[in-house]
Amino acid sequence: MTERLSGELIFCDSTSSCDTMETTLTTVFAVSKAGAVPIAMTMHEGQSCDSYTNAFGLLKKHYPLCVGGSKVPIGFMTDDSAAERSALKKLWPSSRLLLCSFHVLQK
Asked: Which InterPro entries is this protein grouped with (predicted)?
């Protein structure tokens, strides 16, 4: 059952401005018996839609099953980054985009 669940919901979390070049580090997590485990990390310039699309596009191209062992997860849970959410929707249009509860409560 865990294998099936890991392909259903993927969590994405980005940390921006990690250095003077404004590099963004995005970690992609999947569900496991141990909790959320990192399955991919990307480093990309800034937080534009193009930057996220390039980073996630490389993951999709070179590691098509990286999102929890599935080519298309049921959904992605993210923070409220419009650029990140737009890139995910562009690359995995049939996946649902969910907003993490922390960010829902901030609205």
From this structure: MULE_transposase_dom
